[in-house]
């Protein structure tokens, strides 16, 4: 993706921990698929390291360990995990960080899923 204006403006409340997860969501290979309205599956890793997670956009959560430990409401640690960031980027709701080396699959996902 060209160096477009980043959605990660510190004045908009994006903290460094969330920005790091957004960067990972943009750079790491991940597959996404729609399960139901506002409910998405995300697959990442390969071989014995492959895992699937469910991102619930309505509730603002993911089934990954990162979200379970750091994303609980009121924890203040992260606003989203890399899986939810990937879904939001594919939907065109947020942009990848300007300094991210964007995964090629994300561009195809944006073409398919963005509204």
From TrEMBL:
Residues 53-92 form the SWIM-type domain. PROSITE patterns: ZF_SWIM. Keywords: Metal-binding, Zinc, Zinc-finger. Residues 1-26 are annotated as: Disordered. The keyword Zinc-finger applies. InterPro entries: Znf_SWIM. GO terms for molecular function: zinc ion binding. This is SWIM-type domain-containing protein.
């Amino acid at each position: 993706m060209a160096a477009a204006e980043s959605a990660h403006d510190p004045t908009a409340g994006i903290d460094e921990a969330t920005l790091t997860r957004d960067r990972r969501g943009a750079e790491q290979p991940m597959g996404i698929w729609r399960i139901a309205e506002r409910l998405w599956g995300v697959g990442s890793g390969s071989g014995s390291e492959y895992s699937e997670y469910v991102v619930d956009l309505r509730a603002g959560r993911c089934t990954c360990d990162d979200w379970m430990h750091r994303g609980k409401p009121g924890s203040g640690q992260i606003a989203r995990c890399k899986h939810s960031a990937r879904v939001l980027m594919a939907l065109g709701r947020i942009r990848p960080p300007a300094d991210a080396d964007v995964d090629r699959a994300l561009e195809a996902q944006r073409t398919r899923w963005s509204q």
